[in-house]
């Protein structure tokens, strides 16, 4: 695991955008395509905007395939939709071919949408287990990532799949990658900035293992990188 800590969120975003481009170049050179699962929430918005501007001409966007590590059980036109956020901040500005974007089909209902997404992944990855080139994750103040929330049944799901469950904490159904599916990725990048995340970052990186309390501790992988600003890393003892 590698910690990339920068003074400001601007520097964090610049570093992650470069990392994204590097992962894309590596994947396209090896497999002529780059598969990436995006995170929801607000933190990625600035990353998307940076990619759509600074990296417009330096990534072969027509070889990039977009997925979502989790989604809220809302219409794809709803302001809470992770798909809509990415469409507005990344896909539309770059003119991404809609056939390269795999939105979670929430109009099917959460359970069916999760099954449908799992089927799509099996098909897309030629029947093998999905191994994304890059998965971008955020971190909630309560130590959740994707929609792996504390004290939920999905935390102990050992299948590399997409699951739907009601999350009492947010009073809505969520559709989420399981930890094994996330951990199958070639590269995993946490994007975490702001002082409000400091407690959660310390829990994940330095507190004893307690995945029910701190679900993001479940995330591990060959190349797991954290992109943090100083405020978010401020409670770490070892950095
Ligand atoms: O659908 C979601 O909300 C995300 O996937 C979630 O895991 C998010 O990354 C964290 O809640 C952090 O959200 P912020 O970036 O808004 O703080």
UniProtKB/TrEMBL annotation:
Catalytic activity: 6-phospho-D-glucono-1,5-lactone + H2O = 6-phospho-D-gluconate + H(+)
UniProt-listed SUPFAM superfamilies: NagB/RpiA/CoA transferase-like
GO molecular function: 6-phosphogluconolactonase activity
A Pfam match: Glucosamine_iso
Domain Glucosamine/galactosamine-6-phosphate isomerase, residue spans: 8-221
Superkingdom of the source species: Bacteria
EC numbers, comma separated: 3.1.1.31
Alphabetically ordered keywords of this record: Hydrolase
Coiled-coil ranges from the UniProt annotation: none
Pathway where this protein functions: Carbohydrate degradation; pentose phosphate pathway; D-ribulose 5-phosphate from D-glucose 6-phosphate (oxidative stage): step 2/3
UniProt-listed InterPro entries: 6-phosphogluconolactonase_DevB, 6PGL, Glc/Gal-6P_isomerase, NagB/RpiA_transferase-like
Family per similarity comment: Belongs to the glucosamine/galactosamine-6-phosphate isomerase family. 6-phosphogluconolactonase subfamily.
Task performed by this protein: Hydrolysis of 6-phosphogluconolactone to 6-phosphogluconate.
Name of the protein this chain belongs to: 6-phosphogluconolactonase
Organism of provenance: Mucilaginibacter lutimaris
């Amino acid at each position: 695991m590698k910690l990339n800590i920068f003074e400001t969120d601007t520097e964090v975003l610049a570093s992650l955008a470069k990392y994204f481009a590097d992962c894309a170049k590596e994947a396209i050179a090896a497999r002529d395509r780059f598969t990436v699962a995006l995170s929801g929430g607000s933190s990625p918005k600035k990353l998307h905007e940076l990619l759509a501007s600074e990296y417009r001409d330096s990534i072969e966007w027509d070889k990039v395939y977009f997925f979502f590590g989790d989604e809220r059980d809302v219409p794809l036109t709803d302001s809470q939709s992770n798909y809509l956020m990415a469409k507005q901040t990344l896909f539309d500005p770059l003119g991404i071919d809609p056939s390269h974007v795999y939105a979670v089909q929430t109009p099917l209902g959460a359970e069916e949408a999760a099954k449908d997404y799992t089927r799509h992944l099996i098909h897309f990855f030629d029947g093998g287990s999905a191994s994304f080139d890059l998965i971008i994750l955020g971190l909630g103040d309560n130590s959740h990532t994707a929609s792996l929330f504390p004290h939920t049944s999905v935390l102990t799901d050992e299948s590399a799949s997409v699951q739907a469950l009601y999350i009492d904490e947010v009073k809505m159904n969520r559709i989420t990658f399981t930890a094994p599916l996330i951990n199958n990725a070639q590269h995993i990048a946490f994007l975490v900035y702001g002082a409000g995340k400091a407690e959660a970052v310390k829990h994940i990186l330095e507190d004893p293992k307690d995945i029910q309390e701190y679900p993001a501790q479940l995330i591990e992988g060959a190349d797991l990188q954290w992109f943090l600003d100083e405020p978010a890393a401020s409670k770490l003892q070892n950095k």
